[in-house]
Design brief:
Radius of gyration: 35 Å
Low-confidence stretches: 82-92, 97-101
Largest sheet: 4 strands, antiparallel
Structural class: alpha+beta
CATH topology of the domain at 77-86 and 98-183: Alpha-Beta Plaits
CATH class of the domain at 77-86 and 98-183: Alpha Beta
CATH architecture of the domain at 77-86 and 98-183: 2-Layer Sandwich
Shape: rod-shaped
Mean pLDDT: 74
CATH superfamily of the domain at 77-86 and 98-183: Sporulation related repeat
Strand order of the largest sheet: 2-3-1-4
Helix content: 40-55%
Strand content: 15-25%
Number of helices: 5
Length: 184
């Protein structure tokens, strides 16, 4: 009888080995579960990354056009003479901050832009920041041709000549307001 028990114990060990071998064999069920867990984990990580990117983009201005490096149109001598005559005829006004420029409505060739944003809310926030620095600005929408999306520019000035626009841009940069000139 004892020999029979020893034999069973030996066979139990062999059974354990067979069960272990079964456990280590390939299983479609386990493979599918692991695959689904990896897909869910990947989707979660990508969602977190894109949400972080969206929150990082909210207050960062996006500049889509390069500044103009040289004037495209040279002012004629008659124009500058007319401006000098106009300046001498008008009454002296209060001295204003040169970065705060008020213009009459009309078409101007050069615009000074202090930010280009994806949403109007971001552009309005920039206008408020500029107002705190005593700089007048407004939001103007445009279609970005490169990405075919609507963008919102914060415009701080409009000028007839590139030289005037560049001077205004430099005054804004001195005040810590990054800006650039675009030609309309």
């Amino acid at each position: 009888m004892k020999e029979h028990q020893d034999e069973l114990e030996y066979n139990d060990g062999l059974g354990d080995l067979l069960r272990e071998k079964e456990r280590l064999e390939f299983s479609w069920g386990k493979t599918i579960v692991i695959f689904l867990v990896l897909i869910a984990l990947s989707i979660f990580i990508l969602t977190v990354i894109f949400n972080l990117q969206k929150s990082a983009d909210q207050d960062v201005p996006v500049y889509t056009e390069a500044p103009i490096s040289a004037p495209l149109i040279q002012p004629s001598p008659e124009l500058t003479e007319l401006k000098e005559v106009e300046a001498s005829v008008t009454a002296p006004q209060k001295k204003k901050d040169p970065a705060v420029t008020q213009h009459k409505k009309g078409t101007y060739a050069y615009k000074v832009i202090s930010g280009s944003f994806k949403t109007q809310a971001q552009a309005n926030a920039q206008v408020k920041r500029l107002a705190q620095k005593n700089i007048s600005a407004f939001v103007r929408s445009y279609l970005d041709k490169a990405s075919n999306t609507k963008r919102f520019r914060v415009q701080t000035g409009a000028f007839e000549t590139y030289k005037e626009a560049q001077a205004h841009e430099q005054q804004l940069n001195k005040k810590g307001v990054p800006s650039f000139v675009v030609k309309q």
